[in-house]
Amino acid sequence: MSRELLQVEDLALSIGDTCITRRLDLRIEEGSCWGILGPNGAGKTTLLHTLAGLHPADAGHIRYEGKKLSAYSPKALAKVRGVLFQTEPGGFPGTLFETVLAGRHPHLGNLGWESPADLQLAARMIELTGLKGLENRNTQTLSGGERQRMEIATLLTQQPRMALLDEPSNHLDPGQQIIMLQLLRKHFSTTGRALLMVLHDCNLAMRFCDHLLLLKGDGRYLAGPTQKLATTGNLSWLYQHPVSLQQVDGNTCLYFQ
Amino acid sequence: MPRHPLRQSLPLLFLLMLLAVGSLGVSLMIGSISIPAADLWRLLWHDDGSVQYRIIHELRLPRTLSAFGVGGVLALAGVLMQALLRNPLADPYILGVSGGAAVAVLGAMLVGLPLAWHAPMAFAGAVASIALLFTLAHHGNWNTSRLLLTGVVLAAGWSALISFVLSLSPPMQLPGMLFWLMGDLGDALAPTLPLAILLIGLLVSLWLSPALNLALLGSERAAALGVQIRHLHIFIYVLASLLTAAAVSIAGAIGFIGLIAPHMLRLLAGSDHRILVPGAVLIGASLLVLADTAARTLIAPMQLPVGVLTALFGVPVFLLLLHKSYGEQK
């Protein structure tokens, strides 16, 4: 029996007049990989930020490992959940290595000095994301795909138990999308960890996620195992566009008509 | 085994310390009576009753150390403002702190308050400006873009008031007012205060450095990595503003140090605040010591306002560094 890492109860969330969820219930267990699908403007990013504790909810409860979100200190929370953002970081240039190393911040002592183990972890994650050799590059000279992989390496270096990702496949070429999602799933779909990611590509979601949250954008949602939810009826309803499912080499693929 | 990214910056910090010591020495040696390096060490510690001893201990040392303290404080305030606003154009004066101080000081000069009142008036004016901006920008949610815009507009308002006071002032008082506006260390002969402020500011900023690094990644990312970003922003705003207020009260609105010292360090050593903070302090302090030495000797016995020289000296040096740094990237 695996434990629940993230529990959401009766979550109500809205921006202005738009209702994102009215009474959302969600139980994310250790080792699982969830995908959030929904049309533009459905509030996927806002929901993700709310679950991360970066945006206030209207009502309801969010618990990590059974403990209320509000009971965590910011630093303790950063050890439990990590976020991959969709927006571009701006500001001043640093090197790729420094940026990835920033992921260790929640684990550092009061002096804020990284130990050799921290440095090694960052170096290993840079290698796993295929960025070896770019450690001293100015982050502003990286390509979009390299920057996205740097963000993934930073999240892996942070080593949270629950990873909340906003479109991790952004800026990545199709081959890198598969490699990075395999890497993320391998890392987080293990005991003690879990993954929740907003995706736009339904085929990636069906391939990598064992559970789906379909967010309609008017307060309605569907949540459950991918096999049960990924039907032509549900996906046509979600995107207001006719879809068909086909088998390609034993994989179910979605086709928008 | 990867090396700590800051290891390679340690030799640079050592060089900057040498630069700081060298600039202090140069400043003590040069002046109306030049003192050879061979005598300087002895004169620093042994009172031989000579004129040189009195010149060093009563005039040059206090002024040099004041310049060191004020330069370091301005560089520190610049680093903090740039981190707060995530804007490379930010300098300690961008949010109107010096403007508030200037209006108060010029007002005091206009109504004929004695010299001893000028520094307290400047500090009061700066603090009033800090509080006013905070009230205007803090309404509802805290947002640094809004803080920046409000501050820039407030600074513009102060400079209109400065022009207003200048146009009312009798011609006799104008040179004194202009010296203050450009920044001048002629009256800064009590180094204990600026040095103490520098030390406190430096320690607090070093303690904040890891969080400042994350703040540069943006508010969302910093918050996700465990920084209480709103508290941090308010704390940096108050700290940077108070440091600026102190520097301006002591020596007037000396320009350019707070803008270029942080950038010089960024170009030389990257943007990790654990190096940036002490490095910028050393560069800013050395620059102001050298500029002030030039200000009191170039057209001796007359003196120039040091603020004119910081800009004249800083612009070409900065352009050179910028050229080198961008040349390397290609």
How would you describe the overall organization of this protein?
In chain A, helix 4 packs across helix 5. Chain A contains nine helices and twelve strands. With 257 residues, chain A is an alpha/beta fold. The termini of chain A are far apart. Chain A has one domain: 3-Layer(aba) Sandwich (Rossmann fold). In chain A, strand 4 and strand 5 form a beta hairpin. In chain A, 32% of the residues lie in helices and 28% in strands. A six-stranded mixed β-sheet of chain A has the order 6-7-8-3-9-10, sandwiched between helices. By secondary structure, chain B is mainly α. Chain B has a single domain, classed as ABC transporter involved in vitamin B12 uptake, BtuC. In chain B, 75% of the residues lie in helices and 0% in strands. Chain B is built from 13 helices and no strands. The longest helix of chain B has 35 residues. In chain B, 50% of the residues are buried. The mean pLDDT of chain B is 90. The chains are: A alpha/beta (257), B mainly alpha (330). At the A-B interface, helix 2, helix 3 and helix 4 of A face helix 8 and helix 9 of B.
